[in-house]
Amino acid sequence: MIDRREFLKMAACLSASFGISNFPGIVNAALKKITPENTPQLIYLQGQSCTGCSISLLQAESPDAVSMVTQYSKLSFHADLSAASGKQALKLIEEYISGDAGEYFLAVEGAIPWAMPEACVIGDKPFADYLTAAAKTMNGAVAVGTCAVHGGIPAAEGNLTDAVSLKEFYKRKGINPLLIDIPGCPVHPDWVWKTIIHLAQVGLPELINGRPKLFFQRKVHELCPRYHDFQQEIFAEKLGDKGCLFKLGCLGPDTYADCPTRWWNGGQTWCIDANAPCIGCASSQFASKKNFPFYRSFEQAMIKNSEDNK
Ligand code: SF4
Ligand code: SF4
């Protein structure tokens, strides 16, 4: 974890370094083949999101976020990090999306308000219009986070905007661009940056259900260090107890992600290590139903499952 002071220092450093292609940094051996010439341009746009995924991306460890942004990904625009703002930022985005600025990948964080385009604008134009235009010029798009992949919290039951995922947006438009889904609320920085490195160095990574297989092939439950407790029926009865968290509504059995082996915050911890159930932040169920809160009892989870099976 970085504290606020370190975050501001990093953000200032990132802002200052935008536009400089040869930012010096520690070169990870695995990244030596990447040169300024073959790094893809990346335009990072945000729709209906809380910016949590962007904050998570700044927690990258190896390589660190500054190296990723300035050296390996050629992030040409990000609303929170770019020095460019106002008309200058709009011009930059337009240049890429019109195809005049060369090849690029799009990264999209957040959902898209299908029924209320004016709910999310960049400048005075709906976010949705940028996405429609980008489909004609981009090499592909990476949907960053559960909001972009499944709709997430903006698409929760009762929302007025009919928030949809990037995939659903393009499906409704009848467009079929190359998409890579990286769910998570927030995303793990490795999942995004390493996918982008793969795109730069070797091309499209192997996908499973539209997600990079490397990170989303197996369920949290399958890799969980408490799986043995599950088999032995040693269950936690309340938050903070040791034992399998299944009876506290753990969604590890329904969630594909490699958190148990990757860990979070630079390898310091992860949800179940902190005695908290997996709340399925990378699953399509996340935040979708009013009567299915993040933390729930075993009984609530069973009622929900029986309702779904009707
Ligand atoms: S804690 Fe959750 S993920 Fe781990 S074994 Fe129990 S149910 Fe599965
Ligand atoms: S363990 Fe579950 S809730 Fe925690 S980060 Fe991984 S997928 Fe999300």
TrEMBL record:
<feature type="binding site">
    <location>
        <position position="147"/>
    </location>
    <ligand>
        <name>[4Fe-4S] cluster 1</name>
    </ligand>
</feature>
<feature type="binding site">
    <location>
        <position position="221"/>
    </location>
    <ligand>
        <name>[4Fe-4S] cluster 2</name>
    </ligand>
</feature>
<dbReference type="InterPro" id="IPR037148">
    <property type="entry name" value="NiFe-Hase_small_C_sf"/>
</dbReference>
<dbReference type="GO" id="GO:0046872">
    <property type="term" value="F:metal ion binding"/>
</dbReference>
<dbReference type="InterPro" id="IPR001821">
    <property type="entry name" value="NiFe_hydrogenase_ssu"/>
</dbReference>
<dbReference type="InterPro" id="IPR006311">
    <property type="entry name" value="TAT_signal"/>
</dbReference>
<protein>
    <submittedName>
        <fullName>HysA: periplasmic [NiFeSe] hydrogenase, small subunit</fullName>
        <ecNumber>1.12.99.6</ecNumber>
    </submittedName>
</protein>
<dbReference type="GO" id="GO:0051539">
    <property type="term" value="F:4 iron, 4 sulfur cluster binding"/>
</dbReference>
<feature type="binding site">
    <location>
        <position position="281"/>
    </location>
    <ligand>
        <name>[3Fe-4S] cluster</name>
    </ligand>
</feature>
<dbReference type="GO" id="GO:0016020">
    <property type="term" value="C:membrane"/>
</dbReference>
<feature type="binding site">
    <location>
        <position position="224"/>
    </location>
    <ligand>
        <name>[4Fe-4S] cluster 2</name>
    </ligand>
</feature>
<keyword id="KW-0004">4Fe-4S</keyword>
<feature type="binding site">
    <location>
        <position position="53"/>
    </location>
    <ligand>
        <name>[4Fe-4S] cluster 1</name>
    </ligand>
</feature>
<dbReference type="GO" id="GO:0008901">
    <property type="term" value="F:ferredoxin hydrogenase activity"/>
</dbReference>
<dbReference type="GO" id="GO:0051538">
    <property type="term" value="F:3 iron, 4 sulfur cluster binding"/>
</dbReference>
<keyword id="KW-0408">Iron</keyword>
<dbReference type="GO" id="GO:0009375">
    <property type="term" value="C:ferredoxin hydrogenase complex"/>
</dbReference>
<feature type="domain" description="Cytochrome-c3 hydrogenase C-terminal">
    <location>
        <begin position="216"/>
        <end position="291"/>
    </location>
</feature>
<dbReference type="InterPro" id="IPR019546">
    <property type="entry name" value="TAT_signal_bac_arc"/>
</dbReference>
<keyword id="KW-0003">3Fe-4S</keyword>
<feature type="binding site">
    <location>
        <position position="250"/>
    </location>
    <ligand>
        <name>[4Fe-4S] cluster 2</name>
    </ligand>
</feature>
<feature type="binding site">
    <location>
        <position position="278"/>
    </location>
    <ligand>
        <name>[3Fe-4S] cluster</name>
    </ligand>
</feature>
<feature type="binding site">
    <location>
        <position position="50"/>
    </location>
    <ligand>
        <name>[4Fe-4S] cluster 1</name>
    </ligand>
</feature>
<feature type="domain" description="NADH:ubiquinone oxidoreductase-like 20kDa subunit">
    <location>
        <begin position="50"/>
        <end position="199"/>
    </location>
</feature>
<dbReference type="Pfam" id="PF14720">
    <property type="entry name" value="NiFe_hyd_SSU_C"/>
</dbReference>
<feature type="binding site">
    <location>
        <position position="244"/>
    </location>
    <ligand>
        <name>[4Fe-4S] cluster 2</name>
    </ligand>
</feature>
<feature type="binding site">
    <location>
        <position position="259"/>
    </location>
    <ligand>
        <name>[3Fe-4S] cluster</name>
    </ligand>
</feature>
<dbReference type="GO" id="GO:0009061">
    <property type="term" value="P:anaerobic respiration"/>
</dbReference>
<comment type="subunit">
    <text>Heterodimer of a large and a small subunit.</text>
</comment>
<keyword id="KW-0574">Periplasm</keyword>
<keyword id="KW-0411">Iron-sulfur</keyword>
<dbReference type="GO" id="GO:0009055">
    <property type="term" value="F:electron transfer activity"/>
</dbReference>
<dbReference type="GO" id="GO:0033748">
    <property type="term" value="F:hydrogenase (acceptor) activity"/>
</dbReference>
<dbReference type="InterPro" id="IPR037024">
    <property type="entry name" value="NiFe_Hase_small_N_sf"/>
</dbReference>
<keyword id="KW-0560">Oxidoreductase</keyword>
<keyword id="KW-0732">Signal</keyword>
<dbReference type="Pfam" id="PF01058">
    <property type="entry name" value="Oxidored_q6"/>
</dbReference>
<dbReference type="InterPro" id="IPR027394">
    <property type="entry name" value="Cytochrome-c3_hydrogenase_C"/>
</dbReference>
<keyword id="KW-0479">Metal-binding</keyword>
<dbReference type="GO" id="GO:0042597">
    <property type="term" value="C:periplasmic space"/>
</dbReference>
<dbReference type="GO" id="GO:0044569">
    <property type="term" value="C:[Ni-Fe] hydrogenase complex"/>
</dbReference>
<feature type="binding site">
    <location>
        <position position="185"/>
    </location>
    <ligand>
        <name>[4Fe-4S] cluster 1</name>
    </ligand>
</feature>
